[in-house]
Amino acid sequence: MSGCPGTGKTTLSRDLTSVLHTDIISLGELVEREKLYSHIDADRDTKVADLDRLVPRVVELIEKAEDLVIVEGHYADIVPSSFVNVVIILRTHPEVLSKRLEAKGWSEKKVRENVQAEILGSCTFNALNTYGSEYVFEIDTTHLSKKETVSIALKIIYEKPRKYKTGLINWLSLLDAEDQLEKYFS
Question: Which of 9, 11, 45, 54 has its CA 20 to 30 A from that of 154?
Answer without folding.
Answer: 54
